[in-house]
Amino acid sequence: MHEEQLIDAFASKLKVAIRSEDNSHRLRELESKLPVRLPPSFESLLSRHSFASFDASGISFFGWGPTSAELFEVASPRKGFLSEFLLPAGYFQIGRPDTGSFDAICFDLNTQKQNREYRIVVADHEEVFSNSRVKIASELWPSFRTFLETAIKS
């Protein structure tokens, strides 16, 4: 299934308002702050849709749209925030566990994957704030594409 079809199927299953919107300019601006481009599947979601924060398959995703700055905030390493350590270590946060934990759900930009489909990992927030280092607690999915395929089936 092509990225757009996967994203459309995923969006139709969400219990949150997701609006079709051309965000390609905002996506380019976001990616200009990152060391690499985002996965094509995630780019498809961000370039064609706007949405409030939502939960899906264990992840509380950050919102994205003209009035949402969450992804832009984590794309800039800021003192006192997880991004201060995550981005320089090669991790881009896209959300948190839907359990209310402050751990970071991230793309692991360090893994060279075919077609930029980076694995999705959990970074331990306590390790970052207590020891100033990134510790990956677990891998959730080998890629956002795999996440989408799983979410569509459930």
Low-pLDDT stretches are none
CATH class membership: Alpha Beta
Gyration radius, to the nearest Å? Answer: 15 Å
Kindly state the number of beta strands. Answer: 8
Order of helices and strands: HEHHEEEHHEEEHEH
Mean of all residue-level pLDDT scores: 92
The CATH superfamily label reads SMI1/KNR4-like
Question: How many structural domains are formed by the residues?
Answer: 1
Strand and helix map with partners:
Layout: H1 3-13, E1 18-20, H2 24-31, H3 40-48, E2 49-51, E3 54-56, E4 59-61, H4 70-74, H5 83-86, E5 91-97, E6 104-108, E7 120-123, H6 125-131, E8 136-141, H7 144-153
Antiparallel strand pairs: 1-2, 3-4, 4-5, 5-6, 6-7, 7-8
Helix pairs in contact: 1-3, 1-7, 2-3
Describe this structure in words.
- It is a single chain.
- The protein is α+β, with helices and mostly antiparallel strands and 154 residues long.
- It has a single domain (3-153), classed as SMI1/KNR4-like.
- The protein is built from 7 helices and 8 strands; from the N terminus they run αβααβββααβββαβα.
- The chain has helices spanning 3-13, 24-31, 40-48, 70-74, 83-86, 125-131, 144-153, and strands at residues 18-20, 49-51, 54-56, 59-61, 91-97, 104-108, 120-123, 136-141.
- A 6-stranded antiparallel sheet has the order 3-4-5-6-7-8. It has a two-stranded antiparallel ribbon with strand order 1-2.
- Helix 1 packs across helix 3.
- The protein is globular.
- The two termini are 17 Å apart.
